Amino acid sequence: MVYAAKLSELVSRLHAELLTSSTSPGFWTEDRKKFLINEAIRGLQLEIGLLYNDAHFLQRDQVTPNSGEIDLSTDLTRDMLTLRKIGRVAQDIVTGSGIDLVTSAEAWDNFNRTGRETWYRLGNILKTEQEITGDRVLLYHYRLPLLNDDNDVCQFPEDYQDALVIRAAYRGFLQAKEKDSVAIYKGQLNEMVERMKSTAAQYATVLDQRTREVEDYGDTRYSNAQFFRFLTPPSV
Fold this sequence. Notes:
Layout: E1 5-6, H1 7-21, H2 30-51, E2 58-63, E3 69-71, E4 80-87, H3 90-95, E5 100-102, H4 104-114, E6 118-122, E7 125-127, E8 136-142, E9 153-154, H5 161-176, H6 179-217, H7 224-231
Parallel strand pairs: 5-6
Antiparallel strand pairs: 1-9, 2-8, 3-7, 4-8, 6-7
Helix pairs in contact: 1-2, 1-5, 2-5, 5-6
């Protein structure tokens, strides 16, 4: 779930935190507060991505290759951070069957050894040397957009927007060298991260159960709703 918080709302929440504890109110310009929010988006997205094995920021796109190539900078609907899987159809993403994704040095040997369709990446180009037809499905981890205008909407999961503001305040107090406030907000942030770790552990158990269900029953017919249920972490 995503709560449509605007940049102006996040800045107001951060401002309230800073005013509560800061001994140097003149340090907190509007530009600095916006910078801290965006810095927190980048840092917390990375942390959540690592905890959940990127499950929070997944996008699945159906792409038509051009002469065996897919341009990752222009052919996708979002700004790709990490490519996870490629398949002929959506169920390939869930079951792990279908297509191999390897390094360029391994591509030819992999195809000769396995006979499987093989793709490799060169910069922003995803490429195969084999003749193929039809679309391909890509699953990737996307980068959250930065917020520039006051009305820009934050796409961070609602469950973690409190942590986003606390992280921004913590980083701000570090920059302002306000040691007492740094200690307070570091403690709050650590508590939130521990709760994230607990939820991530629950998600790993749920995902393992869903994987066993797929293996036990062999059901590879997934609707969009079923597909995203398979990969969606539980709420905090």
